[in-house]
């Protein structure tokens, strides 16, 4: 497996693969890889001739009071996982290899990025779309795999790809949970044992809400959200948001809504976790 | 020569050419082509296997009170010119083929786009960078040719390409003037005979300023600019701006400045013309 630290190295490699007629699958990650990431690599492996995994804790998507500095890193473990799952190359740049000191260009999605995490983390998605556009231009993928755990990110990226005409298929991979139901996340390692146990309320509350929402439709969304907030607070979670939105527009659901994104962001201690269910209501 | 109206048609063609191992040169234009555009096509023709000319009066780079509706169009003439200069394909989409009704993604350069035309046309460069990023993803060029007449646009595009890692060489083509010195522009056709004659002051004032600026350096910039404003006003031009800026930063020139962009935007009647000289001062 090749390991690239410099943007130009990755791009030369990718362009060479394309010239040789090979297809490329990209799996963009922030590292500290778990079984969720592994499932993305497996999907790319089935889909493309060449699989590139990027590992980059992107500073431009972290706010000033967020966990950029303490975000967990373990390159040796990540490397081993990528090899085990058959990646052809890992791109692991330092921030200075990704951003010039006078970098001044941003890619910004201005609608789907606004609610949910976008309302709480105002520069987050601008950082995500910018770095993903850069990774697309560097890795030249035919397809890129993103997890449904970051549902809003997936929607924003799909919109960017459509709006900017990237010739790339975005593949949405199922959310992967631990045996106890907690959505896998690199941030789970911040949790104490007690916080981890309390955080199980997220998947429990989401799972319980799905049949109710399916049955009663969008008019029941407000009541279901209120009940979830109560249940989560009772378990010791500090709710950042619990929302039920039209999955196409990320606006309030209406009669026309065919799928509802039920999304939560909740603090346990100082750790902010997100989880969601996509509910077909038509 | 192929003519494409749909984004997907162009992209399929471009990807097919790339798979066949051919290089692509892109010449983005707003049509109503003149000898300046022809020189860009000639450069692309020498540089790449396949030359694609885009002809698109991009609505997102026009402000609400600008000349979008009356911008001159002549597709038959443009087509003939492209054939004559050996283009392989023309991409001439309708606005609806370029922008979805709910398009919500912008590419924005936030430093070099701010002074000069950016200060007078606040959404202009955001529209330019967005449409050029889209054209890059559709036409998949190895190189793209832009004229030095739109000096600030050239700088902004170069910065975007660097910041977003597009694998594209940006080629700067010399400004082309008519025999009387007026910089060629599709907008020149708006000018009355009298306005055209008055507008010759632009190239005259710029040409006269070059040796003075070269000799005296950046400390003389303010005096030179003031003299140019006076000369242009005396000839009946209404100055939008005359500025001398560091060509690397588009900020005020300093001791460290190695090249100065001397740029003017001036109304003659209701027609706004731009012109510039790039002056090496070191």
From TrEMBL, chains A, B:
<dbReference type="GO" id="GO:0005524">
    <property type="term" value="F:ATP binding"/>
</dbReference>
<keyword id="KW-0067">ATP-binding</keyword>
<feature type="binding site">
    <location>
        <begin position="30"/>
        <end position="37"/>
    </location>
    <ligand>
        <name>ATP</name>
    </ligand>
</feature>
<comment type="subunit">
    <text>Homodimer.</text>
</comment>
<comment type="similarity">
    <text>Belongs to the pantothenate synthetase family.</text>
</comment>
<comment type="function">
    <text>Catalyzes the condensation of pantoate with beta-alanine in an ATP-dependent reaction via a pantoyl-adenylate intermediate.</text>
</comment>
<feature type="binding site">
    <location>
        <position position="61"/>
    </location>
    <ligand>
        <name>beta-alanine</name>
    </ligand>
</feature>
<feature type="binding site">
    <location>
        <begin position="184"/>
        <end position="187"/>
    </location>
    <ligand>
        <name>ATP</name>
    </ligand>
</feature>
<dbReference type="GO" id="GO:0004592">
    <property type="term" value="F:pantoate-beta-alanine ligase activity"/>
</dbReference>
<feature type="binding site">
    <location>
        <position position="61"/>
    </location>
    <ligand>
        <name>(R)-pantoate</name>
    </ligand>
</feature>
<dbReference type="InterPro" id="IPR003721">
    <property type="entry name" value="Pantoate_ligase"/>
</dbReference>
<feature type="active site" description="Proton donor">
    <location>
        <position position="37"/>
    </location>
</feature>
<dbReference type="InterPro" id="IPR004821">
    <property type="entry name" value="Cyt_trans-like"/>
</dbReference>
<keyword id="KW-0436">Ligase</keyword>
<comment type="pathway">
    <text>Cofactor biosynthesis; (R)-pantothenate biosynthesis; (R)-pantothenate from (R)-pantoate and beta-alanine: step 1/1.</text>
</comment>
<dbReference type="GO" id="GO:0005829">
    <property type="term" value="C:cytosol"/>
</dbReference>
<dbReference type="Pfam" id="PF02569">
    <property type="entry name" value="Pantoate_ligase"/>
</dbReference>
<keyword id="KW-0566">Pantothenate biosynthesis</keyword>
<keyword id="KW-0547">Nucleotide-binding</keyword>
<dbReference type="InterPro" id="IPR042176">
    <property type="entry name" value="Pantoate_ligase_C"/>
</dbReference>
<keyword id="KW-0963">Cytoplasm</keyword>
<feature type="binding site">
    <location>
        <position position="176"/>
    </location>
    <ligand>
        <name>ATP</name>
    </ligand>
</feature>
<feature type="binding site">
    <location>
        <position position="153"/>
    </location>
    <ligand>
        <name>(R)-pantoate</name>
    </ligand>
</feature>
<dbReference type="InterPro" id="IPR014729">
    <property type="entry name" value="Rossmann-like_a/b/a_fold"/>
</dbReference>
<protein>
    <recommendedName>
        <fullName>Pantothenate synthetase</fullName>
        <ecNumber>6.3.2.1</ecNumber>
    </recommendedName>
</protein>
<dbReference type="GO" id="GO:0015940">
    <property type="term" value="P:pantothenate biosynthetic process"/>
</dbReference>
<feature type="binding site">
    <location>
        <begin position="147"/>
        <end position="150"/>
    </location>
    <ligand>
        <name>ATP</name>
    </ligand>
</feature>
């Amino acid at each position: 497996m090749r390991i690239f630290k410099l943007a130009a190295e990755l791009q030369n490699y990718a362009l060479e693969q394309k010239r040789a007629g090979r297809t490329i699958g990209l799996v963009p990650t922030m590292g500290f890889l778990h079984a969720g990431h592994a499932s993305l690599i497996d999907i790319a492996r089935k889909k493309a001739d060449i699989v590139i995994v990027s590992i980059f804790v992107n500073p431009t998507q972290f706010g000033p009071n967020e966990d950029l500095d303490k975000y967990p890193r373990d390159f040796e473990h990540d490397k081993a996982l990528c090899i085990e799952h058959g990646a052809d190359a890992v791109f692991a740049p330092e921030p200075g290899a990704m951003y010039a000191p006078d970098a001044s260009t941003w890619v910004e999605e201005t609608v789907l990025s606004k609610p949910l995490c976008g309302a709480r983390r105002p520069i987050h998605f601008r950082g995500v779309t910018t770095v993903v556009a850069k990774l697309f231009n560097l890795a030249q993928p035919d397809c890129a795999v993103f997890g449904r755990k970051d549902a809003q990110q997936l929607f924003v990226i799909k919109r960017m790809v459509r709006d900017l005409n990237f010739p790339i298929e975005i593949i949405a991979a199922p959310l992967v949970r631990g045996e106890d139901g907690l959505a896998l996340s690199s941030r789970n390692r911040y949790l104490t044992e007690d916080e981890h146990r309390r955080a199980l309320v997220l998947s429990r509350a989401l799972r319980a809400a799905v049949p109710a929402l399916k049955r009663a439709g969008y008019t029941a969304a407000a009541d279901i959200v209120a009940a979830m907030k109560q249940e989560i607070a009772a378990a010791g979670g500090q709710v950042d948001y619990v929302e039920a939105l039209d999955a196409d527009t990320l606006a309030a659901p209406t009669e026309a809504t065919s799928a509802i994104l039920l999304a939560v962001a909740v603090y346990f201690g100082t750790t902010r976790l997100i989880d969601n269910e996509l509910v077909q209501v038509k």
